[in-house]
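Bug #77: duplicate submission created two jobs. Keeping one. Sequence:
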Amino acid sequence: MIRKLLVANRGEIAVRIIRACREMGIETVAVYSEADREALHAKLADEAVCIGPASLSDSYLSMERIISATIVTGAQAIHPGFGFLSENAKFASLCEKCNIIFIGPKAEIIERLGNKQLARETMQKAGVPVIPGSDRAVFDYRDGLHEAEKIGYPIMIKAALGGGGKGMRLSGSKEDFEKNFRIAQAEAKQCFGDDAMYLEHYIKGPRHVEFQILADSYGNVVHLGERDCSIQRKHQKLIEEAPCCALSPKQRMKMGQTAVRAAKAAGYINAGTIEFLLEPSGAFYFMEMNTRIQVEHPITEWITGIDLIKEQIRIAAGEKLTFSQNDIRISGHAIEMRINAEKPEEEFRPCPGTITGLHLPGGKGIRIDSAIYSGYRVPPFYDSMIAKISVWAKTREEAIRKARSALGEVIIEGVDTNVDYQYGILEEPDYQNGNVDINYIENHF
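Kept job's structure:
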């Protein structure tokens, strides 16, 4: 049994984990940078440890400092949340060497699935459909040109190790390939410390549909339905919903079974997400697997009633899943909107600053995940997301109306936000009719 857990993250996800631990009777330790000294997660935890200055490399990305804080406070486990060290195989391995429970899969699984090429090979062996792409990592643009000719344009150039839209560029022909390859590779090196690239054929007009899975260490694997994450800007998700209105029950069953098969093929344990690209024809292809909790996990919790954070902790503690696939029931429709401190009219420029006034919506079927409060200073050093608003209703139409109503109540003074921008998306006829794909923002805004 885990008695004390360190949360190796910040912001709303750190608060979310702390609250789940409270309900489970688990003591928590928060870590914070000097810039986050007044952050809500540092105030809510049973203990809080400053691990360094504002820079990520000296605080939230410092494995040694986080491990030291865990040992000094006597915490038995670390929950990495999402981002930062959550998909870092070296960190997971370091936890194991220090006899610390890492809330997530084992290091070798993170490494295998975090590398797009190795993940692709794993899925192909399991009979999971994959997008046509390179058979090996590409380091030089000349080799990339040769691979691109075999795959066929347009080509998506991706960092082999990475995610979140970083280190990605689209090349439409051999004339612009070298330029886009060099830009993507430089970004990959900067963001992930690795310049290995991966090429795949670009599929036009697909939806981004992901399946949430849970797997314990006894071979039990279930999926909890899907999320449609097609509303995104530069590969950064803005609005997610569950379930996907474009899937028939037959398609949902087929994709869910494929997701479970993929997780089993990888020997996966804990919570994870199998991401697919879904073509208008109904064909779907494996894109990647995220070996962590997702930002958008609340909408899966809405439609299934299952607390994913608590399940993560129980699985890491060696417990069996207490439900089977037949026990999973999808109910209603949920939508999540990511609220960022940014200025959409100025290329989504981040807008840090002090929140001078705050009112967030409430009521039946409305959930707020946030770490902000009146007087809180949004620091300029980290991601600009300051809140997630998610809603649940019996139907998609009702959920959209509830989401619009919730956004209409939001008051955040002192910093600019994307609230009005999100409201505009919900008002747009194509969104309301479910006519969306991953290019929706580019085509409509």
